[in-house]
Amino acid sequence: MSAPAVESHGTGTTIAGGSTPTPERSGASHRPLPLIRRADPDDAAAIARVKVETWRTAYRGLLPDALLDGLDPNDDAAFRHRGLETLSPDRVAYVADLAGTVAGFVTAGRERSGRHPGYRGEVYAIYVVERLQRQGIGRALIRAAATELVRRGLVPILIWTLYDNPRSRAWYEAQGGVAVGEKRELFAGHELHEVGYGWTDPAPLLAFTRS
What we know:
Layout: E1 6-7, E2 35-38, H1 44-58, H2 65-69, H3 73-85, E3 91-98, E4 101-110, E5 121-128, H4 137-151, E6 157-162, H5 166-174, E7 178-187, E8 190-199, H6 203-206
Parallel strand pairs: 5-6
Antiparallel strand pairs: 1-5, 2-3, 3-4, 4-5, 6-8, 7-8
């Protein structure tokens, strides 16, 4: 199964070269192969579209409708554009490019809060649009991010997801993640209850599987 939507807010093949398509899931032989490549500022609008679309499908029933319906991809695009223009050396961003269309993205870097001293790396966000899930795109994206975190020495790795999102939690547990903590943060006036999954050994995140 492809990774469900997840983002921690903080308030909130060959992959490394970004030039080789990832393997297809068995049974999807007629689907085009996604290209996992580094994101650039020109991808900002597409990344924002993926985020808003995925929030509205994955988080419906978990977050208030007013919050989801009020998300503005234009605001998020401006934020993403600035971030990609000034991306620090200890952060990475990848997109899954499917025939010129961004189908998903991942961002990662140094653990941000400083409240988890055992974890040096963090996957900040990973999203795949719902209609393209269950094709291995999420696994390919997380492998790209984990590869770069390992290369920078930013391990162990931490990922946060909504506590009440059983699909997302089951996916991380299937990838070898262990729940290591919880937090509550405000986003647009709504409290988000999140659970953190940790990998002291990043090997499960580095191995591409067609799940």
